[in-house]
Amino acid sequence: MERTSSLVADESGKPLRIEGIFRDITERKRLEEKLQESEAYYRELLNSLKEGIYQCEPAEDGVFTWINQAGAEMLGYDSPSEVVGTPVKEIYVNPDDRKELIKQLEKKGTWKDFTSYCRRKNGERFVSERTCNLIRDENGKPARIQGIFRDITEK
User: Fold this and answer.
1) Can you list the positions of beta strands (E) in the chain?
2) Is residue 122 within 8 Å of 76, Cβ to Cβ?
3) Dihedral sign (CA 65, 71, 74, 78)
4) Looking at residue 78, which CATH number applies to its domain?
5) What pLDDT, in 10s, does the model give residues 89-143?
6) Residue 90, phi-psi category: left (phi > 0), alpha (psi -120 to 50), beta (remainder)
7) DSSP letters spanning 107-136
8) Long-range contacts of the stretch 89-94 (C-beta < 8 A, 24+)
9) Residue 27, helix vs strand vs coil
10) Is the pTM higher than 0.85?
11) In this structure, are 35 and 100 located in the same domain?
12) Residue range(s) defining the domain that contains residue 55
């Protein structure tokens, strides 16, 4: 139940009565619980994958806004929360790779199976294969980049 109440007073400020509205919110609470269960399911699914999945700001100097556990570990971090807020350009060995990605995504919207040399938190280098998509808002303005990547150094 959800309740809204107000105290009604006379001109001198003496309380006369309390007026209120009661609303049954059982269905809304059920839907919120289902949404939370669904979010937990998909978070668990994304974190169970071996590939890194991420979202970041679409600017050249944008930061990571979300990453799964496998992605964080590939980049040398213990948890996704350590990666969020990190400038994406810091993972590139060659800073021009980030510029090229932005350019390609602005032109095509998607760039599939491209490789680049990346670095982990400790500076160790690895070869990454990625597919990225540029997501635009309702006005067509770049809103975020989302992608998937894997370490192909051994290939």
Assistant:
1) 2-9, 15-23, 52-56, 64-67, 110-119, 125-136, 142-151
2) yes
3) positive
4) 3.30.450.20
5) 999 999 889 999 999 999 999 999 999 999 999 999 999 999 999 999 999 999 9
6) alpha
7) HHSEEEEEEEEEE-TTS-EEEEEEEEEEEE
8) 89/60, 89/61, 90/119, 91/118, 91/119, 92/116, 92/117, 92/118, 92/119, 93/117, 93/118, 93/119, 93/125
9) helix
10) no
11) no
12) 50-155
Verify that 59 and 78 share a domain, yes or no. yes
End-to-end CA distance of the chain: 59
Say if residue 71 is in the same domain as residue 83.
Answer: yes
> Where do we find the tokens 């807020």?
85
The tokens for 83 are 């990666």
Among the residue ranges 36-40, 49-53, 106-110, 148-152, the one predicted with the least confidence is 36-40
Q: Are 21 and 3 in contact (CB under 8 A)?
A: yes
